[in-house]
Amino acid sequence: MPFAFADTAENAIPLHVIETAALDDWCVDQTETVVNWVRLNGFTGKLGSALLVPGETGPIAVVGYGDADARARGRYALAGAVKKLPEGTYDIVWGLPEHLLETECLGWLLAGYRFDRYNKKKDRDVRLVAPAGVDADRVRIIAEAETLLRDLVNTPTSDMGPDALEAAARDLAEKHGAAFSSVVGDDLLDKNFPMIHAVGRASATPPRLIEFTWGSDGPLLTLVGKGVCFDTGGLDLKGASNMLLMKKDMGGAANVLGLAHMIMALKLRLRLRVLIPAVENSVAGNAFRPGDILTSRKGLTVEINNTDAEGRLVLADALALAAEDEPELVISMATLTGAARVALGSDIAPFFTDDDAGADTLSRAAREIDDPVWRMPFHTPYESKIEPGIANLDNAPSGGFAGAITAALFLRRFAGEGRYMHFDIYSWSSFNLPARPKGGCGQGIRALLQAMPDLLAK
């Protein structure tokens, strides 16, 4: 299905979104034919149920879509209608609250998403008229960003290694007129990115640091995305079941690229810098080892107690580079720890920051557009857990407690003295949900986009 709204409302089928409690009131304003059709079909407004009322000559005259009640509905509830309706154009004329319009329209567009790179299928054309008050271009751009990042995450590493991720970032940069560069292979050592090099050097595809910049006016925002295109765990090898989803370990980079697309396409007034350390954490004779001590770009030494805690290593070098320009805000996004999933599950994006006002701004924006985030603590007393004694830092503290917090504290050591937000995301839908089929998905970037003007105004 095209990621666009209908060009015109002409001949569109009226779509009524009906809560169970509002069904009787709705029926008062309907024709006798419609009311009889409601009764004959036992339509109650149950969430996800569809009522298709034929016209006198056969085609659909009215559609009712069950919305249950506010407590039962989930994100993108209206998107469930797309697979149940015949091809055509639909116009929401009743029942959807104004504050939900943008999110539900986005869900409608995303309901047409499918990852079909390896299995082509015919699209269904079920279009929606953009409701009054909805910025159709903005919604379309957000849908494009989500589609981009989903495709990146869903693509297996055979076609989405560090080189392909670089190509995708370059294409995006060129599309928006951004200045692009990269540092590849042993040049990482010459340019002082030793931990990116150490993590990625065992792969057949060389590691790299991807960068592009955009905009010439406004505050400087730097986005840093973890681009581990596959994670075997290194010499601390993962089990087979834990390796199955590791193509998505570059989900932080994918989300950063999606957010960057939205920022550039919407022409926000800011200067954007994007940094993506792109590697494969592989096994070979030159792989980094447990017990090794690495020296970072910042000069801090890191003892390697687990080669499967590699994401924070590559992010550390990129964050150190980001801090050198003293941006107004640094945001890192990474599929970093299982501990974050245990804490909040797969649907909520945990974030860390010392900026109380920024955290409140982001949380409020997330509620406004139904993109759930939750603040986690940079709990300073846990700093001792990441200090092993033999080196400045430990990449994998023992004990098993507070894994998401200690990883975030590790990254904070490299992010400089300015404002910093870190997102420990999952970037994956484990089930088929409305507008979110099983596979890669965005987390937190719509909330960040919504909050961005206020975040950068502080």
Automatic annotation (TrEMBL):
What protein am I looking at? Answer: Leucyl aminopeptidase family protein
What does the record give under GO molecular function? aminopeptidase activity
Pfam families in alphabetical order: Peptidase_M17 (PF00883), Peptidase_M17_N_1 (PF21337)
Name the PANTHER family for this protein.
LEUCINE AMINOPEPTIDASE-RELATED, PEPTIDASE B
Q: Keyword Hydrolase on this protein? A: yes
User: In what residue span(s) does the Cytosol aminopeptidase domain sit?
Assistant: 306-313
Q: Which family does it belong to?
A: Belongs to the peptidase M17 family.
Q: Which InterPro entries match?
A: Leucine_aapep/pepB, Macro_dom-like, Peptidase_M17_C, Peptidase_M17_N_1
Which keywords, in A-to-Z order, does the entry hold?
Aminopeptidase, Hydrolase, Manganese, Protease
Task: Please name the source species.
Answer: Arenibacterium halophilum
